[in-house]
TrEMBL record:
Positions of region (Disordered): 258-311
GO MF annotation list: cellulose binding
GO biological process: polysaccharide catabolic process
One annotated Gene Ontology cellular component of this protein: extracellular region
Name the UniProt record assigns to this protein: Carbohydrate-binding module family 1 protein
The keyword Signal appears for this protein: yes
SUPFAM superfamilies for the chain: Cellulose-binding domain
Species: Canariomyces notabilis
InterPro entries, per database record: CBD, CBD_sf, GH131_N
Length: 347
């Protein structure tokens, strides 16, 4: 009996990370999506920048509800439904886009960090399988999820959800309706590598792709929580919904539990560090062995690589704008087109 209890407590401690939350985008600070309207370039408040969307009211593109989150994500009190409809064209572009960007000055582009989120689709308003969708991406697109038919590929449709590095697929699965995909990008900005952690439903994250070399490029304000859909002739627009939960960025050890650090407002502690401390204080005989096990199971030494001094942005990527520090040259045959003071793009 004692050994069973000991094993249970050990598993609980191992499931909690001592990581530090650098930025929390779990929608716990928002009453409704209309709170996103409070943000502007002149009034940069709240957890998100909100400027990449169509001309309709915010509720046409982003809505919040407890029904929209992963039920296993107890650190969030609600999730977000991000929508593409027939008005979701931003700034005169021919691509449909609804995207949120972290509003933070934290060092989310330094050292080794973990970008967390959960993603789900339904049979109602599903993402089109006949167009390429770029999901949870950086401006330089060094890593991202993709779904649907990849531009330039044979055939007319694709039912996979993919994780890509530099445009190359490193992992894929059938994107089945109603299944929550829990993700952490393991990004080492210093070493120039990125790895992929994944699980479904309530299962803890496991590393499914070890860190690989990548041209990691971020100015600390260019991670897009949302979706960009590339245009394709002959395929009319249809409304598409993407469900998001558990969005946050942490440093230190990786939180593998889908419940996330702490608990939603109104119940329990608010950080993974305090949760870990409270549990380990009653298990002092396990502290040393648990810490060693955490290091062994959740971290690894990535190979050291050198980030190229020059880089070329791919089609549709950002290539200029105020405060932008990523690639400013476009890969051939694309050119950098000015759209506004904050954004230029390779077209």
């Amino acid at each position: 009996m004692r050994s069973q209890v000991l094993a249970t407590f050990t598993a609980q401690v191992l499931s909690v990370s001592a990581g530090t939350i650098l930025w929390d985008g779990r929608f716990n600070d928002l009453t409704s999506s209309t709170d996103l309207n409070k943000w502007s370039w002149g009034n940069q408040v709240g957890p998100y920048q909100y400027y990449i969307h169509g001309p309709s009211a915010v509720t046409a593109y982003v809505n919040l509800s407890p029904d929209f989150k992963n039920p296993a994500d107890t650190g969030s009190r609600q999730g977000a439904k991000i929508t593409l409809d027939n008005t979701a064209y931003w700034n005169g572009q021919n691509m449909r886009r609804t995207e949120l960007i972290p509003q933070t000055s934290a060092a989310i582009n330094k050292g080794k960090v973990y970008y967390h989120f959960s993603l789900m689709r339904k049979d109602v308003n599903p993402p089109a399988t006949t167009r390429e969708h770029q999901i949870a991406f950086f401006e330089s697109h060094f890593t991202e999820l993709k779904s649907g038919w990849l531009s330039g590929s044979p055939g007319v449709s694709d039912t996979l959800l993919r994780w890509c590095v530099g445009g190359q697929t490193k992992w894929s699965t059938e994107w089945v309706a109603g299944v929550w995909h829990n993700v952490a990008y393991e990004i080492d900005f210093s070493a120039g590598t990125v790895g992929f952690w994944h699980s479904t439903g309530s299962d803890p994250l496991t590393r499914v792709v070890a860190p690989v070399s990548a041209s990691t490029s971020s100015n600390g304000a260019d991670w897009h929580v949302g979706v960009l859909e590339l245009p394709r002739d002959g395929y009319p627009d249809s409304t598409e919904d993407y469900y998001w939960s558990g969005v946050y960025i942490e440093s230190g050890d990786l939180t593998t539990s889908v419940a996330g650090p702490g608990s939603a407002p109104g119940g329990g502690s608010s950080s993974s560090s305090s949760t870990s401390t409270s549990r380990t204080s009653s298990l002092t005989t396990l502290t040393t062995s648990t810490t060693q096990a955490q290091v062994t199971t959740t971290s690894s030494v990535a190979p050291t690589t050198t980030t190229p001094s020059g880089c070329a942005a791919s089609q549709w990527s950002q290539c200029g704008g105020i405060s932008y520090s990523g690639c400013k040259t476009c890969a051939a045959p694309y050119t950098c087109k000015y759209l506004n003071d904050w954004y230029s793009q390779c077209v």
